[in-house]
Prior knowledge:
Elements: H1 2-13, H2 17-29, H3 34-54, H4 60-83, E1 92-98, H5 106-117, E2 120-124, H6 131-140, E3 145-149, H7 156-168, E4 176-180, H8 186-191, E5 196-197, H9 201-212
Parallel strand pairs: 1-2, 1-3, 3-4, 4-5
Amino acid sequence: MEEIYQRLRQSVVEGLPDRAREAAQQALSAGVEPLDAINGACVPAMDYVGERFGCHEMFLPDVLMASQAMKAAVAVLEPEMRKRGAERVMRGRVVLATVKGDIHEIGKSLVGIMLSAGGFEVHDLGVSVSTELIAAKARELDADIVGVSALLTTTMMVQKNVVEAIVCAGLRPRVKVVVGGAPVTRKWADEIGADGYAKDAMSAVTLAKSLVGK
């Protein structure tokens, strides 16, 4: 059984979707519970990739390939999981967006990938998203966390507007607001009343877990 888990983990780490799909099918054929395969192999594999990325031992293409491999494995495992009445428990629901006027996407997308792998339900609204839409989606989706990215000093102020919009919508303090982006700092997060600051994808996952745990 451990050999099957190891094969699945390795296929995700190496970013091989076809092999991950095959390993997931082998796990089912061997009688492994699909939820156990996800939590025991796929998630730890993405955690490992995230840690190596944080240490600069793996790079963005590696993370993206690993994500595709995990999706391939989960696509095999989830239908069988539903047939058996099992359900992957989500840690929380996250709305992500790059603020209005800013079209940078790679960092935000990476955060979304790692949050999904970490057990969060992620709704990525894309780039240059209006403050009003972010607040509306947070309400509509009953989000636990709103994550907003700004990669330009000229768009950082929009993060403050998002915090204020969440307050005006009556969603605070239940909905937590997390900010990030190249010019963003922990001091800025404190100044605008955000609940946290993440400098990279792995710290965003750690922060999100701590916030939903409160």
